Each structure stands twice: as C-alpha cells, then as structure tokens.
## 1
Amino acid sequence: ETGVTQTPRHLVMGMTNKKSLKCEQHLGHNAMYWYKQSAKKPLELMFVYNFKEQTENNSVPSRFSPECPNSSHLFLHLHTLQPEDSALYLCASSEGDRANSPLHFGNGTRLTVT
Amino acid sequence: KNQVEQSPQSLIILEGKNCTLQCNYTVSPFSNLRWYKQDTGRGPVSLTIMTFSENTKSNGRYTATLDADTKQSSLHITASQLSDSASYICVVSHAGNNRKLIWGLGTSLGVNP
C-alpha cells in the first residue's frame, strides 16, 4: 500500500466519452500532482495543487480538467480525448515543495483511448 | 538545455550479482538528485534524495553516489534479488526555474535466476 490510491486501475474509453480519474492520499500531504507517463518519454508534469489551489498547469490541453475538492482528493476529468492521450496517469503527493520533498506516487490509471 | 541521461537503457544480470546504473545531468543550478524504482504496473517509489553536499547515500542494498563537479550520479545494487527487476529513474531538481524536476528515461533492470 503506497498511501496514494488511484482508481480505476485501467480505463478504456472512446474519443467521445467523458470519464474521471480519482486519486486519494492518506499521508496528510498538502501538495498533489498529476503526471503523464508515456512509453519512451520521461514523466510529464501536468498539474500541481497546493492546499487545494492549482499552482501549475503545464500547457495541458483543455480536454483534461483537474479538480481538487480538498487536500486529500484529486480528480482528472477527461472528455473528447485523442488516441495519443493513451498513457499511464500517475497521481502523486508530497509533504512540502516537490523540490525538497520526495514524491509519493499511486499505482496509476492505465488509460487507453480508442 | 536541462537534461538527465541514464545508461545503460536496459540491463540483465543474474541473481546475486552486483550492478551499477549511471546518471549524467546538465541541470544547472542544481538542488538535489533522486533515484526512484518503478516496478512494472506500479508508480515510482523513492529510493534516495541527495543534496549538493552529499557524496553517497545508502538505502539497504542500494547505494547512490553523487559527483556534483562532474554532474554524475550512480546507483549501485548489491547482491541483486529477483524483486530488483524494475525501471530505475534518475530525477534532478532544478534550483531555479520554479524548482522543476527533470526526469530521466530510466534504466530497465532484469534480474534472472
């Protein structure tokens, strides 16, 4: 058990569907992140939340919409995705600034867009 | 350009043997360097974080070294076990640039019986 739980573990969706990824952390951390991991590419930071406030959006297309209702929960709402969005989506949390604190990752949601 | 390069890309060793993975970076200014282990189908797990002043850090059978002058780090695994089969990712924290994390592509390690 990593302390960061992501659901679902696997998701297959069509390009016209709307779905949501969920992340919950049980570590009492105040920062949460969404990362995208594609084959043969380094991890890409998508969004950062500190104390429920979005502090970074790294030029992510608007078809990805994050939501952070409280410091323990993070969602990624998906709509009208493209096949190139197929990837492993990882949620992470940290106690403080990610520059100095280790990131604690969930086991990811494997997304396939058909 | 701030980059992190890892070598080898993949490696297969026999159980019980030692191995060393390399990480070279061009990130400047530098804050710290981390090694993560990622098992297949799971998220990365932190092994070590090393700051500028630390030359070596151990976590069980894993020992990381850092040479900030040459911008090189290594991860040494002693007496490998089957459970060490995973991807090992080097990550460098940029001291400026909003303290961005620069991720390497990882080294895929296979440990065979």
## 2
Amino acid sequence: KAGVTQTPRYLIKTRGQQVTLSCSPISGHRSVSWYQQTPGQGLQFLFEYFSETQRNKGNFPGRFSGRQFSNSRSEMNVSTLELGDSALYLCASSLESGKTEAFFGQGTRLTVV
Amino acid sequence: AQSVTQLDSHVSVSEGTPVLLRCNYSSSYSPSLFWYVQHPNKGLQLLLKYTSAATLVKGINGFEAEFKKSETSFHLTKPSAHMSDAAEYFCVDRNYGQNFVFGPGTRLSVLP
C-alpha cells in the first residue's frame, strides 16, 4: 500500500508570492490534516479535511487555505508569502476523523526568501 | 484545552543503555495517545498508540509505553538504545473529532 505522498518536496519562493502544496493520502483514507513545523513553534495544526469538508482549523491567518477533492487528495495554499512562512509542511492521512492514528508524508520544505 | 507536556527537550544515552522519554497529558476525558518519531528531514513515523485496550503498549523497534491514568503519563521506554534511535520523539494526544495535539518533542542522542 502506498504511503502519503507530498509534492513537491522542496520549494523556494519569494516574499509576496503564493504557493500550492499537494498531498495524496493513503488509499481509502478520507481524513487529511496539515501541520506546519518550525524550530521555534514546533508542530502546529493548520486544518483538517474529511470527505471534502473542513472539519477543524488551527490559529493561522486567512492567507493559509486548503481544500480536499473527491478522491481525498488535498491541497494547501499560502498567499502573500512572508519570511516567517518558511517551514516544513506535513500532511497526515487517517481513515476517519476520530481517535485513529495518522500517517504522515515526508513533508514539503518551503523556503521564503 | 488539552495539552501534552514532554518534560525533557533533550535526552542523551549511551548505546546499549535504557531509554526513557517522558510524556504527560492533560485530557480530562479518556485520551487517545501516540508516540511518533522523526528522523532528520523526514516525516513522522508512528511508533505506537494507546487506545484503552491495554495499559502497556508495545510498538515498533523495541519501544513500549505505559499508560498511567493516576499520573496522567504515557512514558516511552526501550531497554537498549541503538544508534539508529537518535531522532526527535513526539508524544501526541487526539480527542475524538479533534486534531492532534503534539508535545514539544524530545531529541534523543545516542552516544557510542
């Protein structure tokens, strides 16, 4: 069974640009959640999607948005990039939005210059 | 709000000696607890999970964790550290219908 696939693995963007990150969950998993990881803040929850609906949202500005498609693949978009958005963005896939474990992708390393 | 505390930001052990990584949770409900490991520039790998079936949970690579409700703890142990265990370890709590709440992480160093 294929794992969680995140693309691209690395990105370099300029301040003010926008970026879209993609996540393909494990086949059959309907829940996809996104996390931002930085040395200073650790792992912070961005949002979770389940069956194309946003279930939960973390405390991030509106520049961060996401969506989920009918095949459960998810995209995350960040507009008007700031230097502080440089981070490892991790996607996690779960069977359902409950107490089940999540399986993580290898992440997308975003660098904003 | 639920929170997870990992008491040590860095633990250093010698190869072949026991590992203890401490975790305390704050949930007032029955928690769903996990330990994940992250090697440099990698995603998170699930080590083990507690879902109330048994208080002592065995995971991969020889790790295990014991759930102690009276102490609100879920410490991770391994009898004998290996060089390949050097990584960052995260204790995680997840309530039904909620997102994962991560502890700050403990960096494990294994000395030869």
